Amino acid sequence: MSARRSRITPEREAELHEAVLDLLREVGYEALTMDAVAARTKSSKATLYRQWGSKPELVAKALRCTQPVSLGEIDTGTLRGDFARMVAHSDDAQMAKDTALMRGLAHAVHESPELHRALRDLLVDPEINGLQAMLRRAVARGEVRPDCPALDFVPHMLIGAFIALPLIEDRSVDREFLTQFIDAVVFPALGV
Amino acid sequence: MSARRSRITPEREAELHEAVLDLLREVGYEALTMDAVAARTKSSKATLYRQWGSKPELVAKALRCTQPVSLGEIDTGTLRGDFARMVAHSDDAQMAKDTALMRGLAHAVHESPELHRALRDLLVDPEINGLQAMLRRAVARGEVRPDCPALDFVPHMLIGAFIALPLIEDRSVDREFLTQFIDAVVFPALGV
């Protein structure tokens, strides 16, 4: 922790992130301003810029805080255990809220390369890295063959399922669906 | 063919659909009007409404015409052959254009339940039905076990891959990716 970052408590940070997500749901990304965040959270714009850098970064970091656990933190000793832990940490109500939020952001991402980059750097890439570390450990333990071609496609399977389910069946992913999809598709593809 | 439908030639219909797609790319779904389509195609609005019913149906039918082949038409005698035919009919340049177009429509779909319904009825459901018929034949031939749990998730895998790849790797699906994904994920999950 640098001195710069320590000026704000974790509680205050969580409060600010929640306010940003509320504003995002209310007005959308385009209409969200740093002025509105400052007013809503009774903080100065200088503090916001010092702590978060920019609006895209603020939004990406606020979204990261909705994640119950980072995949990089999960290490149970088996791949089945790691996936079960991932599902156990998921929250059905939160996933439904996230689906609505991400749907609203999908449009903004294509309009704003800065938002695209911030979401990728702060949200997507760290999780994909965590997932790949999980898979490398499974290969090292002999659970998955090192030349298994599905190893390259696990992010596509998981992220694809999250986006495809609302389109195909008009519902958000929940723990039951995640468990069924992982058992029916991800493990067989990996030969687990 | 009913008398009503025969008033327009297939060539003229294709011309109209191409004009609708051009307008969609230029102005987006919200700003697209039946007046603009009528002006662009030098046809009367009465003809447009008689032939297509409504703006959402016109857009869905125009999009359907960009598909090189309907999955329901493919029946080579083996599941591997059916998927190979599906990939062979895909056109890399067309898939890239479709990705951009669908990205623009994703926002409109959530604003317009009528567009959502038209895309589902005219575009998504017929392809999912064609895919399911393909899988049922594979089960009947003994290529896939009837209780294989992945049978329920083939649309999620394929549609998910189409949407997840641009997000994860910043590129559109092409025939090479489709082939790799089907070989690495879909066939192993189905036990083929």
TrEMBL record, chains A, B:
Keywords: DNA-binding, Transcription, Transcription regulation. The keyword Protein transport does not apply. Residues 33-52 bind DNA. GO terms for molecular function: DNA-binding transcription factor activity; transcription cis-regulatory region binding. It comes from the Bacteria. Residues 10-70 form the HTH tetR-type domain. The keyword Transcription regulation applies. Signal peptide: none annotated. This is TetR family transcriptional regulator. It comes from Streptomyces katrae.
